[in-house]
Amino acid sequence: MKNDPKKITRYMAFERANHWLSAILFILAALSGLALFQPAFVPLSQLFGGGTWTRILHPFIGVAMLVSFGVMAVSYWKPNIMTPADWEWLRRVPELAGGDDRNMPEAGKFNGGQKMLFWLLVICMALLILSGIVMWRAYFSFIFPLWLIALASVIHAIAATIMIALLIFHIYAAIWTRESIDAMMHGQVRRAWAKQHHPAWYREMIGGEK
Amino acid sequence: MALQSLDIIRRSATSTPSPSQRRTPEVAKLIDISKCIGCKACQVACMEWNDTRDKVGVNRGVLDNPMDLTDASWTVMRYAEVETNRGLEWLIRKDGCMHCAEPGCLKACPAPGAIVQYSNGIVDFHEENCIGCGYCITGCPFNIPRLSKRDSKVYKCTLCSDRVAVGLEPACVKTCPTGAIVFGTKEDMKRHAAGRIADLKSRGFAMAGLYDPPGVDGTHVMYVLQHADKPGIYNDLPKDPGISPMVYLWKGIAKPLASIGMGLVALGAFFHFVIKGPNEVSKETEKEVEDEK
Q1: What is the pTM of this model?
Q2: pLDDT tens, B39-56?
Q3: What CATH number belongs to A7-209?
Q4: Do B131 and A150 count as a contact with CB atoms less than 8 A apart?
Q5: Which of B 150-189 lie inside 8 A of A, CB atoms?
Q6: Which of A148, A203, B103, B267 is most open to solvent, judged by the fewest CB atoms within 10 Å of its CB?
Q7: CA–CA separation, B34 vs A100, rounded Å?
Q8: pLDDT per residue over A10-60, tens digit each?
Q9: What does the domain layout of chain B look like in residue ranges?
Q10: B68 interfaces chain A, CB cutoff of 8 Å
């Protein structure tokens, strides 16, 4: 199964490891952040050792996530540049969601939806880290005026909500599109999978082999 | 920290009612700035009763000492020399928690039970429930709570809720030598203030008035101001304080909207799967790839 010549390599080991590191850190940040944001989620703070530990850990988890996510952002920004075909792809998402992908424009390594997700996540991450630093009472908040801390708190809540929603969507898209999780787990995909979901990338990869 | 428990009308990060069977009359502390001589006995009494000790500070060439509220100094006298139409005036304001009827600190607090409001109007911090996030500092329109470096909990004036609970007046009131600080039901304090304001007006302070800002639904610490039209001259007492709209957004509508939004995305995804099924590689593609080989 390892390095099956019939398969195509989609993600290298480091990419996969870093992706899952980001994923773990995101889940920890989201759970601890929700506990600090919405009283209904306060019980989640028990996962981190209580309210005070949640308050102490959350910002450090966020910084670790920035580093891990930042490595992904730097290595993936180029293949995620939007093309006219990607915009057309996005316009046709309802057809895809309805179960018909015959008229979808040919996607490269990443489709329009993945690219849009990438850029939205980059924006959310940037907003979260900037507003998070302003809100970080133990080390930074005393530098900033109260109105800015209040503004940062709102931005942090909104950006976090959007990011969580985006990643629920991302997780679902990976479950819905069969064999996608294998790609991020083992790094390799079947040729048919590549041709079905990323035809332009498939041709590029096959062409490169010849 | 306090003794009461059956008369909690608001509790931080809690959406169901707290024990509130016992109803107590609303109380208020009235600080008559025209009577204050700036002796700082209230600062001393506060520290003595609450058994807090601030660090010995440095003289900055003014009477203010310490220069600001701290985790151990829950009330400080703020001195201002102001030129008014009556010449030079020395305006001394005893600063500390105003015990807002609509407390921004409590609204912002994410720790259940770390901040409570009693039916008598006192807003009290229960430090054993505090997680040290400092959101109350962000929420407060008067910039009162202070985070302790020693234990990362926030502290502020309790309006001597422990004394009030057993029928005593706050320590600062007890000690004030000129009667500039008085304590009683809010109704009585308003009546008392009206008399003081009439007296001040008769002595030429045409704009004398009561500071009980409606932006926070009134406060349970009120000032009699000689110049109620210009609260800013009393070391930046805010003219129209209120909880920041940002805090309302953050701790109000954003919470249910975010939870519902995230829930809908998750449910939408799940039901999409149930209705449409997975997105699999089609048989045609499988065959095409087979044929290519």
Answers
A1: 0.91
A2: 999 999 999 999 999 988
A3: 1.20.950.20
A4: no
A5: 152
A6: B267
A7: 80
A8: 999 999 999 999 999 999 999 999 999 999 999 999 999 999 999 999 999
A9: 8-243, 247-292
A10: no
CB B99 within 8 A of CB B141: no
Q: Which residues 203-262 on chain B approach chain A with CB closer than 8 angstroms?
A: 244, 246-247, 249-250, 254-255, 257-259, 261-262
CB atoms B265 and A192 under 8 Å: no
Angle A51-76/A112-135 helices, nearest 10 degrees? 140
Which ipTM score applies to this complex? 0.88
pLDDT tens across B172-221, in order? 999 999 999 999 999 999 999 999 999 999 999 999 999 999 999 999 99
B277 has a chain A CB within 8 A of its CB: yes
Give yes or no for B16 touching A (CB within 8 A).
Answer: no
In the residue annotation, A198 being an active-site residue is answered as: no
Is the distance from CB of A160 to CB of A37 less than 8 angstroms? yes
What secondary structure letter does DSSP report for A94?
A: H
Do residues B190 and B212 touch, judged by C-beta distance below 8 A? yes
- Catalytic residue, chosen from A170, A186, A197, A198, is A170
Does residue B271 sit at the A interface (CB-CB below 8 Å)? no
Correct CATH for B8-243 of 3.30.70.20, 3.40.50.10190, 1.20.1560.10, 3.40.980.10: 3.30.70.20
